[in-house]
């Protein structure tokens, strides 16, 4: 039987934790599957780790607490939680009670329809429009357009994943919001479902407009890894060949003009431009080849396949 692991990053949410834990027990108690809750304290300074320790002591059967040494950020906390889970289905959610644990059974049931990712969509979002909702909508459109995995609410932490579609890559920066894009890259079946969203009752939000720049930079990284992670020479070699081609044509033009009009090739301002284009093109192609060697070393050293298997029908006796 499959097991559910709920991963919850916590940072200064001591006032919400008791209510959250009770709500999780109530919701998960209706699911006919074994389950666990993994709290990750991300360097809280308000006593959250003490509250979590007491909850874990009272509920040793279902609760585990991972206390990080300092505040590493939400992405790192989520990665730590995933690394310390045992479940086949991993549910991510926030600790501020804006996500509703009561939606988890519905998402697990939806996953039974042969989906690999069930993503929450906050239809009636209870956040400030200018500073939270509007930037989020812009980010959702941008991420969907760049990655090709179209979701209306990438920023909603409440999502359920099958373990195999989210454990083949490392999370860093602000990349937790791009997990569905990574999952889509390996062929995951993704569905978006409406979930409840409540106003924040305690504490204050940890997110602001300053995250926009970080998200854009991480999005560029994600796009590169998804589109060119296995064939980096395609992105370096193409522009390199174009620059070398333009440089060669420009140099050929100068030589032909010299033969016809006797105008010196070396005195033309286009001569150093053609040499620069050819040199930059060569450098770009060389970078692509070096990147190809690194990719091959990465896959061969770790024996990582360049494919993912969904299932095997009629496996041979050797596979059983």
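Sequence proposed for the structure above (320 residues):
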């Amino acid at each position: 039987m499959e097991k559910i692991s709920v991963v919850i990053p916590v940072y200064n949410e001591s006032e919400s934790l008791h209510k959250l834990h009770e709500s999780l027990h109530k919701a998960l108690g209706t699911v006919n599957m074994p389950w666990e809750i993994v709290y990750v304290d991300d360097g809280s300074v308000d006593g959250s780790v003490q509250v979590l320790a007491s909850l874990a002591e009272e509920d040793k059967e279902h609760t585990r607490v991972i206390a990080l040494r300092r505040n590493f950020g939400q992405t790192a906390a989520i990665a730590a939680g995933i690394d310390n889970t045992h479940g086949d289905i991993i549910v991510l959610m926030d600790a501020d009670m804006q996500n509703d644990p009561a939606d988890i059974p519905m998402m697990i049931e939806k996953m039974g329809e042969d989906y690999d990712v069930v993503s929450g969509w906050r239809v009636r979002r209870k956040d400030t429009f200018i500073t939270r909702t509007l930037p989020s909508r812009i980010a959702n459109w941008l991420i969907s357009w760049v990655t090709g995995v179209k979701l209306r609410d990438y920023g909603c932490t409440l999502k359920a994943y099958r373990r195999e579609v989210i454990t083949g890559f490392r999370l860093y920066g602000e990349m937790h919001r791009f997990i569905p894009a990574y999952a889509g890259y390996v062929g995951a079946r993704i569905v978006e479902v409406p979930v409840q969203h409540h106003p924040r009752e305690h504490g204050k939000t940890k997110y602001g407009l300053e995250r926009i720049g970080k998200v854009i930079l991480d999005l560029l990284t994600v796009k590169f890894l998804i589109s060119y992670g296995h064939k980096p020479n395609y992105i370096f070699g193409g522009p390199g060949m174009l620059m070398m081609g333009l440089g060669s044509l420009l140099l050929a033009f100068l030589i032909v003009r010299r033969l016809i009009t006797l105008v010196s090739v070396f005195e033309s301002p286009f001569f150093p431009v053609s040499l620069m284009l050819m040199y930059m093109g060569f450098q770009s192609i060389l970078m692509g080849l070096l990147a190809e060697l690194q990719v091959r070393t990465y896959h061969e050293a770790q024996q990582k396949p360049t494919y993912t298997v969904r299932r095997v029908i009629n496996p041979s006796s050797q596979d059983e």
